[in-house]
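Let us practice reading a record.
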Amino acid sequence: MIPSKVLTMNRHRPFRRLLLLALLLTSGGLVPAAQAQDALEEARAAFRNGEIDQAITLLVGLTQDPAIDKETKAEVYTVLGRAYVAKRRADEAKQAMAKLLELEPPLIELDPVRETPQLMRAYYEARYELCGSYTVDPRCGQDDGPRVKTLAVADFTNAATVDHETYDPLRQGIASLLVGQLNAGVDLKVVERERIQWLLDELELQRNAAVVDQSTAVRVGRLLGATHVIFGTFYVQKRFLSRKMVLQARIVDVETGEILRSESVTGKPGDVYGLAEDLGLKMAQAINVTLANVADDPVRRFTKSLDAMMAYARGEAFLERGAYREAREKFLEALSYDPQFTLARIKADSVEPMLLASSN
C-alpha cells in the first residue's frame, strides 16, 4: 500500500509544475536561485517518471536564465541531454552537450557508467566539434606540456572453438573488466570503451566488427591521443571432459607501434574474472603502473560470476543499439546471478526513464 503522504505529494506535483512553468514563462527566465533549484528538481522528477516533455519544458526555461550559477546550469544541460535522448532527438541532445561544454573551464566529463551510450555519443561529437580532433586530452592536443599516461582497451576477439556464440559477449565483458581494474592505476587515464566503440563506428575503422587487429588498435590509439593500447583474444577449447580458457593480450606503444609485452593466462571459463585480473596486472606492470585495490569501490568492482558477466555484456550490446527494454532485462538477469553487481543495478536504473517515456 502506498503511504498517504506519498499520494498527496504526487497529487500536488502537477500543480507545482504548472506554477514553476508559469514562473519561468512570465519572468523572462530570471528566477530566484531557490526556485531555480526547485524547477531543476521537478525536471529531474519528471524525467525519472518518464514525463519527458514536461522535463524538457522546465529545463529549456532554466537554460534561458543568465542568473543561474555554472554548476547548476551544467546539471540542467546534462539532464536536458538525457531527456532529448529519451525522445530519440539526437541532434538536440548534441546541441545540449555543446552548450554544456561552453561552460568550461573547469573540464566537464560525463560518467559512461551512469549515462547511456547515446548521450555519450552526443557528448563525444560535441567534444570533437569543439576540439577539431578525437583526442581525449582536455587541452585538445594544443599544449606541449607533459602528457598523462593514457591507455585504451579494445574489445577482445572471440576465438572460442566450442559454443562460440555463447561466449561472444565476453568480447565486451573482458574489456569492461580490464577497464574497471586499470582505472585504479596511479597516474593513469583509461579511455572508456564507449569512446573507443564510438570512434570505430564513426570512422568505420574495423573491416570485421568482431576483430580489432594491431594496426586498427594503433590507429585508434593515435586518434585518441593514447600512449598505449591493449588488444587481445580469448580462446575456449575442449579439454577431455572439461573446458580450458586462454586469455591473450598485447600492449602496444602507440607512438612507435612496438609491442611492449605479450602475455597469456590459462584456466577454466568460470575463472574468467581471476584470469582477467591476472592479465590486467601484467599489462599494468608493462607500463610501470601501480594498481590500487578496487575491492572497496562497489562501482569499479566487477562481478566474478561468468553468467552475470555475460548477461551484463549482452545488456551493454542492447543498450548501444538503443534496445532499452532488452538491455534492462539483461542487466536484471545479471543481478539475479550476482545481487552485489552494482554496475548492473546502475545500468538497469539508467534505462528506466526511457521505458517509462515509451509507455506514456
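A brief commentary: Residues 1-12 have pLDDT under 50 and may be disordered.
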